[in-house]
């Protein structure tokens, strides 16, 4: 009887602890007052489109601490095409033609909790509108998780741009790198970062040298995760933040993913927390930079859907 009571108390304590991990908890962060908006001289011909390839069905509960279990969220899955006179780049590829097979490579608990619906793969959207994938100078990955790389095999021969940290991740045997690992060898183009600070990041890579596309290392969700700052000729500025935050509230509040989500998807949850603090500071100082999480369907709906574009 005493044992039964002790077990009951232990279970109750564990249940309370688990519930606590979902409750609101705002991250504190330091303001970045002295920073100036980095200069950019994008060519007038530069333009951008979003390509949606499917949805994942979840709740705000799992996206950020304080999110409601009754707030259903469809996570958008896709990529962003940036056409630039120096070379077109596709940021992430979303769900590809073989996404059903690709989902089979997920760790068991992820597979069990992942519900998704499939749309039109990027390669098929390209051919439907006469866009030649051979025009692409590269596929730039925010990170190499399955839902960002599933479309890569549909675009054979297009170089996949990766920093060395993400290449090490793909080369290893971590469960979340399994799909990327299985796609090797890929036509990888390695890039590095210059010792040039950008919006508080110590290093950056100005892809075409005009400040229009600037990549910064932002490891945590995966070791080689990056953020892509896109500065358009209209003056509009976007930050493709990958999966550092799944929904914009995570930056606005700011709040990290609840423990169970962090445990499932983040390589280094402490580093993701620091990235969120940094993004919150950028968002506060420069609200004109639109934060674009890879999976916030509300943000995706506000961007031009391929073949529509914006400059
Ligand atoms: Zn993702």
TrEMBL record:
<keyword id="KW-0862">Zinc</keyword>
<keyword id="KW-0378">Hydrolase</keyword>
<comment type="similarity">
    <text>Belongs to the metallo-beta-lactamase superfamily.</text>
</comment>
<keyword id="KW-0479">Metal-binding</keyword>
<dbReference type="InterPro" id="IPR036866">
    <property type="entry name" value="RibonucZ/Hydroxyglut_hydro"/>
</dbReference>
<dbReference type="Pfam" id="PF00753">
    <property type="entry name" value="Lactamase_B"/>
</dbReference>
<dbReference type="InterPro" id="IPR001279">
    <property type="entry name" value="Metallo-B-lactamas"/>
</dbReference>
<feature type="domain" description="Metallo-beta-lactamase">
    <location>
        <begin position="76"/>
        <end position="295"/>
    </location>
</feature>
<protein>
    <submittedName>
        <fullName>MBL fold metallo-hydrolase</fullName>
    </submittedName>
</protein>
<dbReference type="InterPro" id="IPR051013">
    <property type="entry name" value="MBL_superfamily_lactonases"/>
</dbReference>
């Amino acid at each position: 009887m005493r044992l039964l009571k002790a077990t009951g108390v232990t279970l109750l304590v564990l249940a309370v602890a688990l519930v606590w991990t979902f409750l609101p908890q705002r991250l504190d962060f330091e303001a970045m007052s002295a920073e100036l908006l980095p200069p950019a001289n994008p060519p007038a011909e530069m333009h951008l489109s979003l390509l949606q390839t499917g949805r994942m069905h979840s709740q705000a509960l799992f996206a950020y601490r304080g999110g409601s279990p009754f707030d259903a969220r469809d996570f958008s899955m896709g990529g962003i095409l940036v056409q630039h006179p120096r070379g077109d780049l596709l940021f992430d590829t979303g769900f590809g033609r073989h996404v059903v097979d690709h989902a089979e490579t997920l760790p068991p608990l992820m597979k069990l909790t992942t519900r998704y619906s499939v749309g039109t793969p990027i390669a098929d959207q390209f051919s439907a509108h006469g866009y030649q994938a051979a025009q692409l100078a590269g596929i730039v990955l925010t990170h190499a998780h399955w839902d960002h790389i599933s479309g890569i095999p549909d675009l054979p021969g297009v170089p996949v741009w990766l920093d060395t940290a993400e290449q090490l991740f793909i080369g290893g045997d971590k469960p979340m790198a399994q799909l990327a690992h299985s796609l090797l060898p890929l036509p990888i183009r390695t890039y590095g970062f210059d010792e040039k600070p950008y919006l508080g990041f110590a290093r950056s890579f100005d892809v075409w040298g005009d400040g229009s596309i600037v990549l910064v290392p932002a490891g945590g969700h995966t070791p080689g995760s990056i953020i892509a700052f896109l500065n358009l000729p209209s003056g509009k500025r976007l930050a493709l933040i990958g999966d550092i935050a799944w929904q914009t509230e995570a930056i606005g509040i700011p709040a990290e993913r609840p423990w169970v989500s962090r445990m499932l998807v983040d390589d280094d949850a402490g580093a993701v927390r620091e990235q969120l603090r940094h993004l919150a500071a950028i968002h506060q100082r420069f609200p004109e930079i639109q934060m674009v999480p890879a999976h916030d369907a509300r943000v995706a709906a506000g961007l031009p859907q391929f073949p529509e574009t914006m400059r």
